[in-house]
Write a structure and sequence with these properties.
alpha/beta, TIM Barrel, 8 strands
Length: about 280
């Protein structure tokens, strides 16, 4: 698997769009401006900051960051890990921020049956309600969907359940992103057939992630996105470090190869796709 340095990418003059980053978080409080500068130097010219970690202060931080920087846009929601903790005040904050002009999507929301930090029914209810919120403000949905690596004895399937909830809520018509895809190639194809975009993170560069690399070929080129999900999941050769938007160049190289594209075409296509799904003018 070939990789390339950030400086090599920067010299190409190409741009990338990090479609899912958590640079609002405390992990970046000490050097956030330097992180953003490194991203731009590496050719990562734009990013979506996801305001969905813990309580709604993450959403507030993400919106504030998007207000200050014209190359950053925000999303708002509560991660499925924290769905069971949601209060009326949390919902009120999200409903207010959802209408902000720098908020381009509702998310990340969804189902996490891997960790089960929140009761599954609470996750399902919150997921459906966030889709309804997205519909009320006419904005896309960003989804976190993770199931068990092997099908559990109870027969539950986070991806199948998520697709049913998305379809029932009309999310594909709004625009729907399955972020940090970790399902099977069949799941990727099913999401694409439903009308969703599928975003690939640094996980795709890991030696054990061949099923995810195989999934790339199941997604039409006009539905592929790339992301860091930083500060998590740094790609090879940066694995073990705090992830940051500049590192998405390594993921993009791998996804290009899996999609049968040149890096240049992958960069152009994913930027176009990100602008389209989030309705950001070019």
């Amino acid at each position: 698997m070939t990789t390339t340095s950030s400086s090599t990418i920067a010299g190409s003059g190409l741009g990338l769009f990090d479609s899912h980053a958590h640079v609002d978080g405390p992990e970046f409080d000490g050097d956030r401006e330097a992180v953003l500068a490194r991203a731009r130097a590496a050719g990562v010219k734009r990013m979506i900051v996801i305001g969905a970690v813990g309580d709604p202060s993450s959403a507030e931080r993400s919106v504030a960051l998007a207000e200050r920087d014209p190359d950053i846009w925000a999303t708002v929601a509560t991660h499925p890990h924290d769905a069971a903790q949601m209060t009326p005040d949390w919902w009120a904050t999200h409903e207010r921020l959802a209408r902000h002009p720098r908020v381009v999507a509702i998310g990340e929301t969804g189902l996490d049956y891997f960790y089960d930090h929140s009761d599954r029914e609470a996750q399902r209810v919150a997921f459906a309600r966030f889709i309804a919120l997205a519909r009320s403000v006419d904005k896309p949905v960003v989804c976190h969907i993770r199931g068990r690596d092997n099908k559990p004895a109870d027969g539950s399937d986070a991806h199948a359940e998520a697709r049913a909830i998305l379809a029932a809520g009309g999310a594909p018509a709004l625009g729907c992103v399955i972020h940090c895809f970790t399902g099977t190639p069949d799941d990727a194809r099913a999401y694409a057939e439903l009308g969703c975009y599928v975003s690939f993170s640094g996980i795709a560069t890991y030696k054990t992630a061949q099923p995810i690399r195989d999934a790339v070929a199941q997604v039409p080129h006009d539905r592929i996105l790339v992301e860091t999900d930083c500060p998590y999941l740094a790609p090879i050769p940066e694995r073990g470090k705090r992830n940051e938007p500049a590192f998405v160049v390594h993921t993009a190289r791998v996804i290009a190869a899996c999609a049968g594209l040149t890096y240049e075409d992958l960069a152009r296509i994913t930027v176009e796709n990100t602008h389209r799904v989030f309705r950001i003018p070019t």
